[in-house]
């Protein structure tokens, strides 16, 4: 299974900054140490043309050339620098590469992931909440374009690729929801804390709000109901999954009480849902702000372990029977 990572994910920040930037390197090292079947690949930077599928030219240019006003930088949460711009491009590029592998239909594909990404607070014309560009939005639009071009090249009349974005970060994917409002080819599902950031939510296709202190049983029941509703309303050809670690009880920004076992059960349910329908999936890590960073890494490593198990099912299903 392919995992996309770049050294640029670890952005130098001012001393005392609250974002746990070290988690990306720690997760990479944990995956390399514990999951030898996962192949680490260098994340490429997304191009201007790819970013323009979901972002305005003026915003792309402002990030590229450092002309973003100070208030806009504060809303993102990272000061602008060339390294910040490069990190943002590679975070998107990693998800695009994972999508291409998952959609390829060749040996061992079906699932691939980004060791960062899940930047769901970014809007078309601005960033927010530690998110510069919206990798999920760019990926959905790019995969739709590439699917249409491939169908046309074969002389077929292409139907739009339908993409389901299953966002289980503890914070609503407000930027993603806004970008796809009115787009029937993309379904946005978000399971998030009702009283958590963003405090002004956007209307997605299916928004499930959870109370502070929500525990495993209620969380998993809400997820099951949401997946049932998705089943009734939408049949995707690609799933994009944001496997946030921040619902964990030890997350300082989470406000929920989900255990490690609960997060593993969540991941298994989502990967199984896609597998049962033979829908390719690309996934990203999204949020994770553990009071103890080891809790974040444990939750994310478990996501990768579960993903690898389901990717093996894809691989085995593609092997010819004797």
From TrEMBL:
Pfam families: Hist_deacetyl. GO terms for molecular function: histone deacetylase activity; hydrolase activity. One of its GO terms (biological process) is epigenetic regulation of gene expression. The keyword Membrane does not apply. Keywords: Hydrolase. Gene3D superfamilies: Histone deacetylase domain. This is Acetoin utilization deacetylase AcuC-like enzyme. Belongs to the histone deacetylase family. It comes from Acidovorax soli. CDD domains: HDAC_classIV. Residues 25-299 form the Histone deacetylase domain.
């Amino acid at each position: 299974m392919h995992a996309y990572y770049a050294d640029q994910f670890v952005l130098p920040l001012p001393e005392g900054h609250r974002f746990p930037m070290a988690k990306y390197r720690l997760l990479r090292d944990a995956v390399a140490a514990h999951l030898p079947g996962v192949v680490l690949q260098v994340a490429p930077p997304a191009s201007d043309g790819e970013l323009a599928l979901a972002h305005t030219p003026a915003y792309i240019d402002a990030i590229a050339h450092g002309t973003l006003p100070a208030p806009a930088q504060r809303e993102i949460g990272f000061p602008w620098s060339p390294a910040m711009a490069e990190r943002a491009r590679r975070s998107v590029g990693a998800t695009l590469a994972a999508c291409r592998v998952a959609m390829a239909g060749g040996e061992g594909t079906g699932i691939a992931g980004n060791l960062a990404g899940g930047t769901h607070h970014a809007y078309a014309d601005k960033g927010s909440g530690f998110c510069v560009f919206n990798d999920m939005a760019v990926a959905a639009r790019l995969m739709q374009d590439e699917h249409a071009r491939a169908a046309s090249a074969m002389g077929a009349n292409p139907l739009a690729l339908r993409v389901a974005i299953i966002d289980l970060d503890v914070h609503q994917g407000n930027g993603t929801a806004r970008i796809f409002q009115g787009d029937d080819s993309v379904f946005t599902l978000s399971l998030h804390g009702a009283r958590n950031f963003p405090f002004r939510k956007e209307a997605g296709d299916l928004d499930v709000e959870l109370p502070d202190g929500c525990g495993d049983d209620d969380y998993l029941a809400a997820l099951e109901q949401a997946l049932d509703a998705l089943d009734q309303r939408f049949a995707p050809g690609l799933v994009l999954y944001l496997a946030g670690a921040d619902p964990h009880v030890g997350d300082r920004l989470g406000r929920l009480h989900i255990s490690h076992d609960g997060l593993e059960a969540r991941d298994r349910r989502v990967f199984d849902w896609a597998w049962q329908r033979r829908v390719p999936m690309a996934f990203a890590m999204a949020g994770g702000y553990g009071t103890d960073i080891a809790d974040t890494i444990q939750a994310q490593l478990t996501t990768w372990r579960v993903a690898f198990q389901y990717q093996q099912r894809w691989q085995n299903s593609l092997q010819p029977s004797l």
